[in-house]
Amino acid sequence: MKWLVSIFLLISAYSNAQDSWENKADSIVDLAKEQLGVPYKWATSAPGKSFDCSGFTAHVYGTMDITDCRSSKGYASVGQKVDFSEARKGDCLLFAGTSPGSKTVGHVGIVVENNENGLKFIHCSSSKNHFGVVITDYESSGYPKRFLQVRRLF
Predict the structure, then answer these.
(1) N or C end of the chain: which has fewer CB within 10 A?
(2) pLDDT tens digits along 12-25
């Protein structure tokens, strides 16, 4: 009978951890979505006014007390690296800059969803095609060729 109680407690603890992660991930994405449409401006992190890519992620993750990292390159040493196939809501995506062949982090975004419909992420883009804070469908964009890694920050 004790083993049954132990199993129940383990399942309950796992369920609570899942709920906690899911709630935090939902809060991250909701907070990020509040900034949709805010324009890109280099070296800024002004909610509702302007962001650069790392200013946007710094605002979102900082508000959630996850990290205060302010440079895209800095995210390469925050949290833990996970496989792309394991990317989940709230994870940080790291991309190379726009220089051909670059392997240096130059852009960051936040996973909004990763399911049977593919991966979507929110970021602040300087591209004329999708300027400012936008949600991008990973597979139908140019980002796969710039992808470097996924970081789990919480």
Answers:
(1) N
(2) 444 455 679 999 99
Strand, helix or coil for residue 141: coil
Burial category of 31 from C-beta neighbours within 10 Å (exposed 0-12, middle 13-18, buried 19 and up): middle
The residue ranges of DSSP E strands in 5-91, in sequence order, are 45-46, 50-51, 80-82
State how beta strands 147-152 and 50-51 pair. unpaired
DSSP percent split of the chain into helix, strand, coil, nearest 5: 35, 30, 35
One-letter identity of residue 23:
N
> Distance of alpha carbon 43 from its chain centroid, rounded?
19
* pLDDT above 60: residue 11: no
70 and 54 Cβ atoms separated by less than 8 Å: yes
Query: What whole-number distance in Å separates Cα of residue 84 and Cα of residue 86?
Result: 5
Residues 123 and 95: their CA atoms lie apart, in Å, by 11
> Rounded to 5 degrees, what are φ and ψ at 84?
-55, -40
Token pair belonging to 29: 């994405």
In tens, the pLDDT along 59-68 reads: 999 999 999 9
91-120 pLDDT, tens digit per residue, is 999 999 998 889 999 999 999 999 999 999
